[in-house]
Amino acid sequence: MLLTKDQILEAADLHSEAVDVPEWGGSVLVRTMTGFDRDAFETSMITVSTDGSRKPDMTNLRAKLVALTLVDEANNRLFDVTDIPRLALKSAAALERVFDVAQRINGIGAAAQDDAIKN
After folding, report:
1. Phi/psi of residue 106, each to 5°?
2. pLDDT above 80: residue 63
3. Residue 64: which of 118, 13, 24, 113 has the closest Cα?
4. How far apart are CA 17 and CA 15, in angstroms?
5. What pLDDT sits at residue 115?
6. Could you give the angle at which helices 35-44 and 61-69 cross, rounded to 10 degrees?
7. CA angle at residue 68 from 113 to 40, to 5 degrees?
């Protein structure tokens, strides 16, 4: 069956997974990213110099992905880009736990990051 435009736009294709974060005293919901969020994440990981060359910028990598993927029960993001510096100051173990799940459910890994730098 071929999908119509309306079927595609109405599809509930964002899923979330609960992650226990003992360092924070509870659980959080990690959601798959929208296309917009994925592009923002990949763009934030690249620095383009004046000569047009690209190089990776891993600054606050974990906090950036966590900020883009944590949602409340109504599926609203908990953080925005202005929260990233403060989020980056949280426990590395807690961030890593959430980051690992966010990577897995969003299909992000070293190969995906390398592809973003090349493109």
Report:
1. -105, 5
2. yes
3. 113
4. 7
5. 53
6. 170
7. 55
Both tokens of residue 94?
A: 């807690």
| Mean pLDDT along residues 32-44 | 95
Output the CA–CA distances (angstroms, integers) from residue 113 to 17, 27, 46, 48, 93, in the order listed.
22, 27, 9, 15, 21
Structure tokens at 17: 């997974």
Mean pLDDT within 27-42:
96
Domains and CATH numbers, the chain: 17-118 (3.30.2220.20)
The answer to whether the CB of 63 falls within 8 A of the CB of 30 is no
Grouping H, G, I as helix, E, B as strand and the rest as coil, residue 2 is: coil
